[in-house]
Design a protein that fits this description.
Helices cover 7% and strands 51% of the residues. It contains two helices and 16 strands. The protein has a 16-stranded antiparallel barrel.
Length: 360
């Protein structure tokens, strides 16, 4: 009886595995990264850090009876606390001439922040900086979102059009199947978000694009509600590439007259150049500047005096990178120098990174 049971289990297991293999292909890819970081300058001048991380990507794909295709992936990432999170998941439905639909959790996104593409090791401040630029990376990928891409190659000049929708801004990410969501707090950031992106390749070597994000159904009285966007242009010719970008961010401001030190706008500009010296060695240089404007003062100002003043500060960073491909691995050296780091006047800081990355 036990032998019969074992045979039945083996038979059903084999059938299940055969059906799964026929229905879709499963792959595992990832990367292993090690880094050594030295901070310097007027802030954190004694800080050094040694780190190692990995990222595993489990992907599956298949085809439906109507000719549509589907692709699914989830990523397992390590973080500084030692825990590992399934923080990136996507289900993609390819609908042929009808375009492509994505359902994203901690994934997707339409920001063009890295589309300028300049960075031998990684794109500018997106790879590393002495402090965070505020607002240059605003995107829908931080919340569960639905994205649609128009079909490729049906519009002139290589135009691509995408639209994304976040149904609940308060819901966050890392949501599992049948997630019930959380109560939306709305306010100046809205209860939902719509984001648009348009890209084009009008001539050989040139790519341009822009994105715009807008909060929907804001509540309360606000002098300014939340929105963000930006544009880029990149041109590549042989081993030489140049890029330029601008990013804009306007946070929600409840009352500019009633609050001290309230930032109301951030504008980032970035430009750079990258050269591949040969098949193994690339170098790049780029600059990024984030200008923050804010109100200072309160409505308690003396009679006849202005109740507030405007203050502007520029946080500037330069990025010098060298990448060496040794076949299956990339060694990188990055130097970052900043003035007014973290929007703190007079904070001149540096960061040096030595990195080793391997993909598998």
């Amino acid at each position: 009886m036990k032998n019969i049971t074992k045979k039945v289990v083996v038979l059903f297991s084999s059938l299940f595995l055969s059906v799964s293999a026929f229905a879709g292909e499963l792959t595992v890819t990832g990367s292993a990264n090690a880094s050594y970081v030295v901070n310097g300058g007027q802030v954190n001048n004694n800080d050094k850090g040694l780190g190692i991380s990995n990222e595993l990507k489990f992907a599956a794909s298949g085809e439906l009876d109507n000719g549509f295709t589907w692709d699914y992936f989830m990523e397992l990432d390590g973080n500084d606390s030692g825990a590992h999170d399934n923080d990136d998941s996507q289900l993609k439905i390819g609908m042929g001439s009808m375009g492509t639909l994505y359902i994203n959790d901690s994934e997707g996104g339409l920001s063009t922040e890295t589309k300028d593409g300049i960075g031998a090791v990684g794109v500018g401040s997106d790879f590393a900086n002495t402090a965070d630029f505020v607002g240059h990376d605003i995107d829908v990928s931080g919340s569960g979102n639905i994205q649609y891409d128009a079909p490729a190659d049906v519009l002139p000049f290589g135009l691509g059009v995408s639209l994304a929708y976040v149904p609940n801004n308060s819901d966050g990410d890392n949501n599992s199947y049948k997630n019930a969501g959380t109560e939306n707090t709305a306010g100046g950031d809205g209860d939902s978000t719509i984001m648009y992106r348009v890209t084009a390749a009008p001539i050989d070597g040139l790519s341009v694009g822009a994105d715009y994000l807008d909060a929907q159904n804001t509540t309360g009285t606000y002098s300014q509600t939340y929105e963000a966007g930006g544009w880029y242009a990149a041109y590549a010719m042989g081993n030489f590439e140049v890029g330029y970008k601008e990013r804009y961010y306007a946070p929600a401001v409840a009352n500019k007259l009633g609050a001290s030190n309230t930032p109301h706008s951030y504008v980032l500009t970035g430009m750079g150049v990258e050269v591949a010296l040969n098949d193994a060695v690339s170098i790049s240089y780029s600059e990024e500047t984030s200008e923050r404007k804010q109100y200072t003062g309160t409505t308690n100002a003396a009679a006849g005096a202005s109740p507030f003043t405007r203050e502007t500060i520029e946080f500037e960073s330069t990025f010098l990178m060298l990448a060496y491909d040794i076949g299956g691995a990339t060694v990188g050296l990055t130097s970052v120098e900043s003035s007014n780091s973290g929007y703190t006047s007079g904070a001149d800081t540096t960061k040096t990174l030595a990195t080793l990355s391997m993909a598998f």
